[in-house]
Write a structure and sequence with these properties.
291 residues; 4-stranded antiparallel sheet
Length: 291
């Protein structure tokens, strides 16, 4: 690989440790309460700054037009918002399943914003990058900020949290779950009573989308039932299709992963309070603080 590539920019996944819908705005957006926790597992991105203004995605994802890819949209949004005339080629090494509720696309977009802010020497800072990220998706700001967080509003009102950095077994049953269909479902509970951070820390909070997803996707229901029996509990992340169980440690999670029936897939990850993206950014700035 050319030394001109800036490699190894992490785009970690996330878990929603609970997810409530507390209302709906006049514009149709749902009001949420949730806790985001970054994971030690995620995608990785490489960037090659270009002297032209081209934004080029190497090896586009199957079935996703480059113009619609959140990585390309993030780079172009950053260019448009700053008047930057530079360009970039981007390689995405996918690890997280698409549409799994792990935030892979949003995390990739956030990593693009953070990396290009450094590589293009824009120096916008976290607050401006997070604001720009909100235009790309409600989950993007939490990945830009890079901390475990309590979230409200449409997911953009964030309060950093210091959570237990537990180990999780995350399972992907391999079924496509439509976020739009779940949000528009007439049976969705949209008036969850608001809870506090203290309520959550004392054990309150569910994923309000879980009964809907399990009722509409039998394979997801079967996979969650297996994990409930094997681990004693399971919870959907986001609107699915992935779900997770907290485990005593990585060895226990690995042993249970070895028992996972085919064709379901999974991985072991640690929940984090600080995203590895922040560490990668800090290393890049320490090596080359003036560019």
């Amino acid at each position: 690989m050319s030394e001109d590539w800036s490699t190894g920019w992490p785009a970690p996944g996330k878990l929603n440790l609970f997810l409530h819908v507390t209302g709906r705005r006049a514009d149709g957006y749902h009001l949420l309460q949730t806790v985001f926790q970054p994971l030690s597992v995620g995608d990785t991105l490489d960037f090659l700054p270009l002297s032209s203004d081209e934004v080029r995605l190497e090896a586009p994802l199957p079935g996703v037009a480059p113009e619609q890819d959140l990585v390309v949209r993030a780079a172009r949004h950053l260019k448009a918002g700053t008047g930057c005339g530079a360009g970039v080629a981007i390689r995405v090494h996918k690890c997280l399943p698409m549409g799994g509720g792990l935030g892979g696309g949003s995390s990739d977009a956030a990593t693009t914003l953070v990396a290009l802010d450094h590589l293009w020497d824009l120096r916008l800072g976290t607050d401006r990058l997070a604001a720009m990220g909100l235009a790309l998706g409600a989950d993007v700001p939490v990945f830009v900020r890079g901390w475990a967080a309590w979230a409200e509003g449409v997911g953009e009102l964030l309060t950093p949290m210091d959570l237990a950095e537990s180990w999780f077994l995350v399972i992907d049953p391999g079924v496509p779950v439509s976020t739009a269909a779940l949000f528009s479902a007439p049976e969705l509970t949209r008036n969850c009573p608001p809870i506090t951070i203290a309520d959550f820390l004392s054990g309150r909070g569910v994923n309000i989308f879980e009964p809907l997803a399990r009722a509409r996707y039998p394979e997801l229901d079967r996979a969650m039932a297996w994990l409930e029996q094997a681990a004693g509990h399971a919870r959907l992340t986001g609107t699915g299709a992935c779900f997770f169980a907290e485990m005593p440690g990585p060895d226990d999670a690995g042993k249970l992963l070895d028992r996972l029936p085919a064709p379901w897939r999974g991985f072991v990850a640690r929940g984090l309070n600080r995203s590895p993206l922040l560490d990668r950014r800090d290393r890049a700035e320490a090596r080359n603080p003036g560019s």
